[in-house]
Amino acid sequence: MATTIKTRNGFVIVITLIIAILMMLMPLPDYARFFRPEWVVMTLIYWAMALPHRVSIGVAWCTGFIMDVTMGGILGVMAFSYALAIYLIARFHLQLRQYPLWQQALTILSVVFLVEFIDVAVARATLRWESWMPVLTSTLLWPLMYAVLRKIRRTFQVT
């Protein structure tokens, strides 16, 4: 006998992803643009850890494809890197959920590093130290991002 999971309020996931995409598109001054955290990747990671039956590789690929189109990059690069990142999170989501936030932040560091590495290796011709700043800022902001998204998930009872 198969058990079914009752899902509710999926629109909240979509809204948080749209907000994350808008935060990635928001213009920043030249000195701050390298420090922009990977808002979309962190949002996808949170939902993949919290609700892996709702946000998985397909959602990550579609979101990455939207980011490819909106950011004007090479088509498929972000789609692939997001899907790979969420595959890794989905594969180990039960273990990751048990980690304290500082250990989760280290996981974020490695996953965002992977996303940035794919972007640098495929799309960018030059490698500069600024290319790695989103890895650091995403890692440092993970506890706050986790707390905000968890509060949203509980407030709207997203299942």
Fold and architecture overview:
There is one protein chain. The protein has a single domain (11-155), classed as Arp2/3 complex 21 kDa subunit ARPC3 (Orthogonal Bundle). The chain is 69% helix and 0% strand. It has helices spanning 11-25, 39-50, 57-71, 77-91, 93-98, 101-123, 133-155. α2 (39-50) crosses α7 (133-155) and α3 packs antiparallel against α4. The longest helix is centred in the C-terminal third of the chain and has 23 residues, at 101-123. It starts with 10 loop residues before the first helix and ends with a helix.
Short descriptors:
Cell_shape_determining_MreD; transmembrane helix; Arp2/3 complex 21 kDa subunit ARPC3; single chain; cell membrane; 7 helices; MreD_proteobac; cell shape
Beta-strand content estimate: under 5%
What overall geometry do the principal axes of the alpha carbons give? globular
Poorly predicted runs are none
Q: From the alpha carbons, calculate the radius of gyration and give it in angstroms.
A: 15 Å
Largest sheet: none
Annotated CATH topology: Arp2/3 complex 21 kDa subunit ARPC3
How far is the first residue's CA from the last residue's CA?
A: 21 Å
Q: Summarize the helix and strand pattern as letters.
A: HHHHHHH
Report the strand count: 0
Number of domains: 1
Average of pLDDT: 92
Residues in helices, as a percent range: 55-70%
Structural class: mainly alpha
CATH architecture classification:
Orthogonal Bundle
CATH class: Mainly Alpha
